[in-house]
Amino acid sequence: MKNLFLYFILMVAVFSLQAQSIERQVVAFGGAFAEATGLQLSFTLGELAIVQLENGELLLAQGFQQGEAATPVAIFEPERLHFTLYPNPTKDAVWLKMDAVLQNSLKISIFNAEGKLLQQRIEALAAIPFELNLRPLPAGTYFILLENKDGQRGVASVIKN
S-S: 28 plus which of 44, 94, 114, 148, CB 3.0-4.6 Å? Predict the structure, then answer.
C-alpha cells in the first residue's frame, strides 16, 4: 500500500511539473492597437517611458512594448574642441592653446583623478595661448574640460608635480 501511494504521489508530481515559457506580454492598466494604410499604432498606459525616435521610416516607440526588431537611433554629438596644454607635466601653470580660433567665451572645468570637480569658471579668452593657473592644487593628475556656448567640448589631462 505504501508503494502504491508513493507511486501515485510521484506520478502527480511528474505530470504537474511544466517548463516555463516566456511570452511577449505587457502589464498595464489600459491601451489600444490601431492600423491604417501601412501605419500601426499600439500603446499602453502605465508603463515606464523609454524613448526611441526615428525619422527615416517613421518609428516612434516609447515604453517596453516594442516591435520584434528594434532599430538603433543615431546620436548627434557636436564637434569636439581640440586644444593643447603645455608644459605637461608642470609645476605651476599650463598654457592652453586652441587649434581653432575661438569667437566666444569658454567654460573651463578642472577635475581630479577621482572625477571630483575642483574648479569651474567662464573665461572670455582674449589672447591665445591662455595661462591656466594650477598653483593652488596639490601634485597629481587633473583633467581639464573645455566647453563653448555651442556645446562643443574637449578634455585633456595634465600632471602637476
Answer: 44
